[in-house]
């Protein structure tokens, strides 16, 4: 197995770090690879790339937390717990407000949905309401009287419930909304145009330091995952099945998916498995958003097989094609895009696009009423003859919705942001991108240093 060599140069100094991919690559070794690069270059990297993963406790982007002194003392509450575990697959319960608060303070890397009794909530909510990762609060109690007045001042309180059925129904509906929101998330990192600016940005304290370092580390991570040997991949595949059984064992449908994956999966089905509406796609996308190295290593079988499938050439009618992607984006994410016009952006997930502009506009949410979100339409120009970029492919025949004319890009695909303008008639922001490759002037040396 070859080695990944990262060669960085600043002025007359030459820095070289050798990252070997051997037969026993493990999660710990992969993390150590990252650390060795950082320590040798005296660089910083975002904390989420190095922290211990919580995947054994929660594979989802958000967790359901329930705090009630009587949570285990009534048969009704125990029945509700079973229903909620079927829906969320992950439920954390507390009888103590202090333990619940401590958990919320520690679990800042995942979004929290909280159920709390009225008695505890009256004292706990004022202390935790400001937490940005706390999304929704449901108050569940026997009587609303006495709780309606004080709870009105806290906007995250969704409602007060006295009926278990109404509570579960509301949580289910809100979960579907949250799931749709996460399914359209598009994690991105940005890079300065020139190699000189990359190095000066990385070693400086500028606001772009995280963007540039993440850009390089994610491209390196992809190379490591693609170079893992088959024996290691088989081991990690079995580990993935094991942790999925632990977390999704409450749901018979999910158990069937796990068994099917274990007994029938082959490399030619990778794209099909990824595009199916199962929890596998959901947790892989979550791992990519969090850059959860431990979990991504477990998915190395699917990432490598999808990369090979995407290399199969599609029969496009023209050498230059135009593709589209519509989505809602937070104001903060959109501002980052505008700040990086003329620069490169790495899409740190598998990027789904379509040949149909009209289909993309439907996903852009042009009638969006959420003031915290912006309707975006990506217009992407792609040279189908170029050989120096991450693969992409028309997967129309491999998806369940052929009318969407889907074209899928490999994770880590890089694009240059050319322009952003407002289309008032369609009520959408147009972001013009061109697909970029390893031989682009500003990218050539970076990719050579990673792949040599």
Automatic annotation (TrEMBL):
Sorted alphabetically, which SUPFAM superfamilies does this protein's record hold? Answer: ADP-ribosylation (SSF56399)
Instruction: From the Swiss-Prot or TrEMBL record, give the protein name.
Output: Uncharacterized protein
Which species is listed as the source?
Answer: Rotaria sordida
């Amino acid at each position: 197995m070859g080695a990944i060599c990262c060669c960085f140069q600043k002025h007359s100094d030459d820095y070289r770090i050798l990252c070997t991919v051997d037969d026993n690559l493990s999660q710990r070794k992969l993390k150590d690879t990252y650390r060795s690069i950082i320590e040798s270059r005296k660089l910083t990297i975002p904390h989420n790339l190095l922290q211990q993963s919580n995947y054994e406790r929660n594979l989802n982007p958000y967790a359901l937390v329930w705090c009630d002194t009587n949570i285990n003392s009534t048969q009704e509450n125990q029945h509700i717990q079973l229903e909620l575990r079927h829906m969320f697959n992950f439920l954390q319960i507390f009888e103590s407000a202090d333990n619940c608060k401590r958990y919320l303070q520690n679990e800042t890397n995942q979004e929290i949905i909280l159920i709390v009794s009225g008695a505890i909530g009256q004292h706990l909510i004022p202390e935790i309401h400001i937490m940005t990762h706390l999304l929704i609060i449901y108050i569940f109690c026997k009587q609303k009287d006495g709780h309606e007045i004080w709870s009105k001042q806290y906007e995250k309180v969704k409602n007060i419930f006295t009926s278990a059925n109404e509570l579960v129904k509301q949580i289910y509906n809100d979960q579907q909304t949250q799931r749709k929101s996460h399914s359209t998330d598009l994690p991105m990192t940005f890079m300065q145009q020139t190699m000189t600016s990359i190095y000066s940005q990385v070693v400086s304290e500028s606001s772009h330091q995280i963007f540039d370092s993440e850009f390089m580390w994610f491209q390196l991570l992809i190379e490591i995952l693609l170079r893992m040997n088959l024996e290691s991949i088989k081991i990690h595949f079995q580990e993935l099945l094991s942790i999925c059984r632990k977390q999704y064992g409450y749901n018979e449908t999910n158990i069937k998916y796990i068994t099917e994956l274990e007994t029938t999966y082959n490399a030619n089905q990778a794209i099909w498995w990824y595009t199916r509406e199962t929890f596998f796609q959901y947790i892989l996308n979550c791992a990519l958003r969090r850059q959860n190295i431990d979990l991504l290593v477990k998915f190395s079988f699917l990432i490598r097989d999808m990369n090979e499938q995407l290399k199969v050439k599609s029969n496009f009618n023209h050498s230059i094609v135009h593709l589209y992607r519509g989505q809602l984006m937070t104001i903060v994410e959109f501002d980052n895009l505008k700040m990086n016009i003329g620069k490169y952006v790495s899409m740190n997930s598998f990027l789904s696009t379509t040949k149909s502009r009209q289909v993309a506009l439907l996903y852009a949410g042009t009638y969006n009423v959420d003031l915290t979100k912006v309707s975006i339409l990506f217009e992407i120009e792609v040279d189908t003859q170029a050989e120096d970029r991450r693969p992409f492919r028309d997967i129309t025949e491999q998806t369940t919705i052929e009318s969407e004319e889907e074209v899928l890009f490999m994770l880590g695909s890089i694009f240059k942001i050319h322009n952003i303008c407002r289309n008032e008639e369609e009520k959408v922001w147009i972001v013009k991108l061109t697909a970029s490759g390893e031989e682009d002037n500003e990218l050539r040396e970076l990719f050579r240093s990673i792949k040599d």
